[in-house]
Amino acid sequence: MQYRQLGRSGLKVSELCFGTMTFGDAFYTIGEITEQQAADRLVHAALDAGVNFFDTADVYSRGQSEEILGQSLANSSASRDEVVIATKVRGSMSDAAAEGTGDVNNVGLSRKHIMQGVEGSLRRLGTDYIDLYQVHGWDPVTPVEETMRALADVVRDGKVRYLGVSNWAVRQIMKANALADANGWPRFVSLQAYYSLVGRDLEHELVDLAVEEGLGILPWSPLAGGFLTGKFRRGQEGPEGARRTDFDFPPVDTETGFDAVEALDEMAQAKGVTIPQLALGWLLQRRGVTSVIIGTKKPEQLADNLG
């Protein structure tokens, strides 16, 4: 396993990050791993392969993902200082907040929700600090000044080490980092966004921004929600039980996508590797990319992704 500096920070993370969106049972149709032993097998296999970077979010199955990940790390032989834990805040943490019928402050990037969110994540993860705390999407209601001040305070209080951003636009990131610079607050050091061989919108502006601003890019869904696993083929039904068969996300232009899969298949056979390994390797060579987030449900899938 190789390690890279996260953006312009001094933090070193493995070039593959283990994502735990599949931990829990209530995040769309994605969360499926609810047994602690099953999660332990995946997390411990990742650790054994040299992965030191783990990503989750409070909204993944409303905290279940954080709880399961925290317990898996506690059940491992790795010390807390050996691992880098990333989580996120913004999503609604109750049905009422999600539906707009009540619990109105349990969503968003207000000071109240950030302070509540960081305490909840620390408790569920079973740790006294979070290495990378990421804002999980833009909040159109809360002033960005309020958000950045609250984030600066959780860093100052020792509850968070570094800050990251996920799924924000160029102007939003620039405004936030400009505010941080003007006030002596910590800047964002990472950008988590969708990026894959068949999903390259990030290259229009955000890659340049990330490189110029010192943000390490952390691509999520690098296999396009399973499209680049090799299981989906032109003119064939999606395999039963595959995530993308039931949850067609992120969007892919299927014609060009199948062209890519067929080209990858030919290359993979010639090189004696798999389609996912080629797709992940391609991303790791892209400008600005620090670590690629992989998420699997089965040990054999993880082993293949790890190469």
Named CATH topology: TIM Barrel
> Quick one: biggest sheet?
8 strands, parallel
Strand order of the largest sheet: 9-8-7-6-5-4-3-10
What's the CATH class label?
Alpha Beta
- Distance between the first and last residues' Cα: 10 Å
Rounded mean pLDDT is 92
Considering the protein shown, what is the CATH homologous superfamily?
Answer: NADP-dependent oxidoreductase domain
Q: Write down the secondary-structure element order.
A: EEEHEHEHHEHEHEHEHHHEH
| Secondary structure tally: strands | 10
Structural class: alpha/beta
**Percentage of residues assigned to helices:** 25-40%
Evaluate the radius of gyration.
Answer: 19 Å
Figure out the total of helices. 11
- Low-pLDDT segments: none
- Specify the overall morphology: globular
CATH architecture, by name, is Alpha-Beta Barrel
Number of domains: 1
Task: Give your account of this protein's structure.
With 307 residues, the chain is an alpha/beta fold. The protein has a single domain (3-306), classed as TIM Barrel (Alpha-Beta Barrel), CATH 3.20.20.100. Helices cover 39% and strands 16% of the residues. The protein has helices spanning 36-48, 64-74, 95-99, 111-125, 144-156, 170-183, 206-213, 243-246, 254-271, 275-284, 299-306; strands at 3-5, 12-14, 16-19, 53-55, 84-89, 130-136, 160-166, 188-194, 216-220, 292-294. The termini are close together. The model has no long low-confidence stretch (mean pLDDT 92).
